[in-house]
Amino acid sequence: MPEIASRCHVEAIAYLAEKAVSEAGIVKSDIDAVAVTYAPGLIGALLVGMNFAKTCAFALGVPLIPVHHIRGHIAANYLAYPELEPPFLCLAISGGNTMLIRVDGYTDMKIIGSTRDDAAGECFDKTARVLGLPYPGGKPVEQLSQGGDDSRYVFPIAHVTDNEFDMSFSGLKTAVINLVHNCGQTGKDLDRASLAASFTKAVSESLVPRTMLAAERFGFKKVVVAGGVAANKRIRADFKEACENRGLILYIPPLKLCGDNGAMIGSQAYYEFLAGNTAGTDLNAYANMDI
């Protein structure tokens, strides 16, 4: 419920900012710049954060740095792996986005493949919902899948004819929903753990081979995975195995840096600032924006 989400942001943001400054052991005059996520995302929530950031930057007399949400997810890896430098190939997988990105520089990026419909994370959320699991669905589905047979159910893996790096997850989502509803209507037993395991396998088999193909095609030796779905154990393990088999170096952030967090935005903001990407008080928020 986006309206309620943005109201909760209003209630929490000032206290949270004060707490962050306090726990960092600094005072406000130590702050050199203020970074803010301005796109993409729920527009109401973005506007709350952006207007707060504008006010802080103006009051402190410091630059305002706009940061793209997905660039932030990529930059989470710079915090976990200080040695990581572009160029590299990144797969960004979250609730709202699934895309393969050429990262040729800290602020020089190009999408080479993406989902044509649903994001991988959205599929986890919808699968969780149809199984009666909590939202967000990534962790509950992963927990349910433990001990399940990932070959019990066969789910579709879509192939996009005009771009081999593009993906589609709407068919997978529909197949899961139809299976659950069919079992409920016919009285058949539903192996929930095996469904979760088979579903996760299908997602991984959509993501890993395409990423490996892109790395080979474009000559990347470093592969980065970022975003909330990167926290999934099966997907992490499959990427590790695939990269080891091909002699590629894999970077996946620790679990605490996979989901949305302020640290990743600050990380990318550093490089945006060095590139001269600052904004004025006329900065606007956008629900959708190319990386």
Blueprint (SSEs and pairs):
Elements: H1 2-23, E1 34-39, H2 43-60, E2 64-68, H3 69-80, E3 88-93, E4 98-105, E5 108-114, H4 120-130, H5 138-145, H6 170-186, H7 192-218, E6 222-226, H8 233-246, E7 249-251, H9 262-274
Parallel strand pairs: 1-2, 3-6, 6-7
Antiparallel strand pairs: 3-4, 4-5
How would you describe the overall organization of this protein?
Helix content is 49%, strand content 14%. By secondary structure, it is α/β, with parallel strands linked by helices. It folds into 2 domains: 85 residues, ATPase, nucleotide binding domain (Nucleotidyltransferase, domain 5, 2-Layer Sandwich); 179 residues, Nucleotidyltransferase, domain 5 (2-Layer Sandwich). Strands 5-4-3-6-7 form a 5-stranded mixed β-sheet, with helices on both faces. Helix 1 packs parallel to helix 2 and helix 7 packs parallel to helix 8. The model has no long low-confidence stretch (mean pLDDT 96).
- Order of neighbouring strands in the sheet with most strands: 5-4-3-6-7
Structural class: alpha/beta
Please, how many domains?
A: 2
Principal-axis shape: globular
Count the E strands. Answer: 7
- Pattern of helices and strands: HEHEHEEEHHHHEHEH
Count every helix, treating DSSP H or I runs of 4 or more residues as helices. Answer: 9
Residue windows where pLDDT falls under 50 for at least 5 positions: none
Average pLDDT, all residues: 96
| CATH homologous superfamily assignment of the largest domain | ATPase, nucleotide binding domain
**CATH-derived architecture of the largest domain:** 2-Layer Sandwich
Q: What is the strand content?
A: 5-15%
- Gyration radius (Cα, Å) is 20 Å
- What is the CATH class name of the largest domain? Alpha Beta
Report the end-to-end length measured between terminal Cα atoms: 25 Å
Q: Helix coverage percent of residues?
A: 40-55%
According to CATH, the fold-level topology of the largest domain is Nucleotidyltransferase, domain 5
